Structure formats: C-alpha cells, structure tokens
Amino acid sequence: MAYKDLREFIELLEKKGQLKRIKTHVSAELEITEILDRVVKKGGPALLFENVSGSKLPVFANAFGTMERMCLALAVDDLDEIGDRIQKLLKFEAPAGLWEGIKKIPEVVELTSFAPKYVKSGPCKEIILKENFSLDDFPILKCWQGDGGRFITLPLVFTKNPKTGKQNVGIYRMQVYDGKTTGMHWHIHKHGARDYADSAGKIEVAVAIGADPAVVYSATAPLPDNIDEMMFAGFLRKKNVELVKCETVDLYIPSHAEIVLEGYVDEKERRTEGPFGDHTGYYSLADEFPVFHITCITHRKNPIYHATVVGIPPMEDAYLGKATERIFLPLMKAQLPEIVDVNLPVEAVFHNLCIVSIKKRYPGHAKKIMFALWGMGQMMFAKTIIVLDDDVNVQDLREVLWATTTRYDPATDVTIIDKAPTDTLDHASPLPNLGSKMGIDATRKGIDEGFNRDWPEALKMDAGVKMRVDKIWKEMGL
C-alpha cells in the first residue's frame, strides 16, 4: 500500500501495536533523546510524545526503529522484495559500472511511470506564514548534552542545481540559531553541497518535515544524479508522489508534508555549527557551514513534528542503512556477479566496514572486488573491506570473525591505500575527507597465489547423524 502521508503510517503502526502514545510531560531538551536511546536499543515501539514542554505540537520518533517497522514503512514483508523488483528491471546485460546500471533504470516504463505528480495545493499549505513566524513554535530537540544547540534532525532538504535545473533532496541536519535562521550541514560529497557550490550568490532551499515514510527513506538513498528521489519514492510506494510549489521559492515539496520551511542560503555567509552527537557515537566537531534564512513557513493544521535521534549504534538510522544494503545489493551484483552477499554492520557505522562474500574464481579475485567496490558511488567511504568465500554467511558476525581470522595472513593478505576519500565523519583520518583504506583478503588461497600448503577441511557433521539428533533434540526438549 502507499501511505498518503505520515499520519496514515502512524495510524497503521497504532493498529499493529507498534506505536505508544506518551502522555507524560517530557522536555525536548535531552529527555526525549534519553527515552529514545533506551527504547531503540531494546527494540521498542515508535513513540508519539503528546505533551512536550513549551510546545503544542506532538513529537513522533523511532518510526523506523526495527526491521519490522522498516518493512512496514516500505510496505513489504521483506526488504529483499524491493531488490527483486529492481533486479527485474535490469533486463539489459551487466552494465559497465554500478551507477551506469542505475542510470538505465529510468528507461524502464515501470519506473518512469512513477514520476512525481504536480498538484496546485495540498495539506502542507493549510497554514501559510510569511511573517510573524518562529522556529521556537516547534519542539525541536537538543539531543545530547554537548550539542551546540537544538537541531532539526530529520529535515528533507530540497535544492535545485542552477546549472542543470534538476531538483534534489537530501537529509542534512540543521542547527537552530534563532527563530528564522539555522545551519545547513551538507558535507562536501553531498548533492546539496554541489548545488550550493554551483550557485552564484544565493540558492533557494525548501525543507519538509514529516512525510510519507517512502519519501523520507528516498531522501537517504544513495541515488545517482539523474534519478529523482521523488520518482524513486513513487517506485517504492507504487504510487506517484504529489508535489506542490512553494510559496516564496521556486521548488516543489511533498504536498502532504507536515511542516515546510522556505528560504535561501547565501553563498558567502557561514557560521559555526556544532558540535553534534552524531551517528558515529561521537560528537562531530564544530565547523563553519552555510546559514539557512527562512522566508516562509507553511504547515498542516495541528502538525506533527517528525524527529530522529542518532548516537552510539544501534539507533533508528541503523534500519534505514540496512534497507539501503538490501535494496541496492542487486545493483552491485549486476556489476559484480561474483558477489554473493554484503553486510554493512550497524556496529561499524556502515561506512567503516563492508563484509562481502564472493564465488572466487581466480588468483587476486578478492583484490579486484575491493577496488571495484571502492569505485562505486558512496562505497568509496568504506574504510575497511573484508572479502570472504561463499561458504561464509556474512550476516553472522561470529562466523565472519572465525573465517576472517583463520583465513588471512597479515603480511600477504592486507592491502592499504593511502590518501583516499573518506567520509567527513571519519574522525580517525588525519585530514578532513582524506585518509586511508584497508582491504582484507580472507578467502582461501591456492598454489596459484603462492600458498604451498593444503588448507585444512572445516569441521562437518554427518548428515544422517544430524537427522537422527533432530528427533532426539525434540524429545529432549532443549
């Protein structure tokens, strides 16, 4: 099913017992974060805080905080179903590159038929404020005690590239400076930062808060430049996303959004932003970032403020990341058919570790996979890649650790690359955005790779014994 808006998703969660309404009085400063941190880590429900101090608006959070809710958000029983849909679109031969493969998706009628639908108005315009507005009217969170202030943590930030005219959306946190200005934390590698860099003077920006979950997810997806996130959201929800033009800027935003902030970023104006308790589990350092000036706020009557909290994993963003892992795996396989499975562990903050299993066919095959992955879009941020044989279940970290530590020799099977692109939030790299990578070949080696001894055979149990013990096991009641 396609959710019309965030409210329909909330209603479904409540029907399924996946939502808890919190009527107890809570503060948006630190208290909501502490509650969410406890709830997420024990696999608890989505929360709707109905009595937030200093605000008439409720705060909705932990929408995606379990695999079950992530599947509900995208209306599937299993996230691999979406990957299978994408796989069916790939009727052509394996493309020259992963992103070349994705770029061909819009040529398929099934996807292009879900291009956004433009409408004249929508619920997000029930209240239009071009003056006498303030961000202080919203229950914006201060998440961690060392944060530089309050942050809008789940904003869908819409920009348009002045050179191409194409609209883009991404999620970039926004520190509140006062009632009408915020920071705009887009990293150098992000699309929003590129649109900003290409602008001459000012760039218009629109920010939607609270949307259909497929729209929210699509804003996080690592899509290439030529695929519109709103079309991808339409593909996911199997129904076009309705967009409406903003009041004061030439941008289109989801018509059923709860809250919309319109304004601009001046190319020359920057201000200190941060620190911020980030998804790495550390405070990202304060730095200079562009300033967003708000010219208009529109919202629904009695809007719901949608927020998230990041921190020491696992947190809610873990499940958004796992969705990306499963959805985009078929596209990796289209380019690299020897790949069996990929795991980006939540505990390693995704981009710090990529574990991949392959059907190894020739000497040096593992190293070929490492370099190919580092050349695939945002996979360039993978700090460590471990390549394993196809007999290893990469989703089982106990099995991964066993196989890795027993199948690699540090002197011969570790590849180090210096001065490569890193994620801006790689706190260990000596320079911002530039550091090193490590690849570990944990596949079994043969004579053709200079290994002159026999590999020992892994322990196995007789199949007949297993079947007999299956019956005994039931009788034992273990």
Kindly list the characteristics that best describe this protein.
5-stranded mixed β-sheet, single chain, globular, 478 residues, 2 domains, 27% helix, 23 strands, UbiD C-terminal domain-like
Structure report:
The protein is globular, with a radius of gyration of 24 Å. Strands 5, 6, 7, 8, 9, 10, 11, 14 and 17 form a nine-stranded antiparallel beta sheet that branches. Strands 19-20-21-23-22 form a five-stranded mixed beta sheet, with helices on both faces. It is 27% helix and 25% strand. It folds into two domains: 6-306, Pnp Oxidase, Chain A (Roll); 336-449, 3-Layer(aba) Sandwich (UbiD C-terminal domain-like). α8 (213-220) packs across α9 (229-237). The protein has helices at 6-15, 31-41, 67-73, 80-89, 98-103, 109-112, 191-198, 213-220, 229-237, 317-335, 365-374, 397-407, 410-413, 463-476; strands at 19-22, 46-49, 59-61, 117-119, 127-129, 151-152, 156-160, 167-171, 174-178, 181-183, 202-209, 242-245, 252-254, 259-273, 276-277, 283-284, 287-299, 305-306, 339-343, 353-358, 384-389, 414-421, 434-441. The model has no long low-confidence stretch (mean pLDDT 91). 44% of the residues are buried. The longest helix is centred in the C-terminal third of the chain and has 19 residues, at 317-335. It is α+β, with helices and mostly antiparallel strands and 478 residues long.
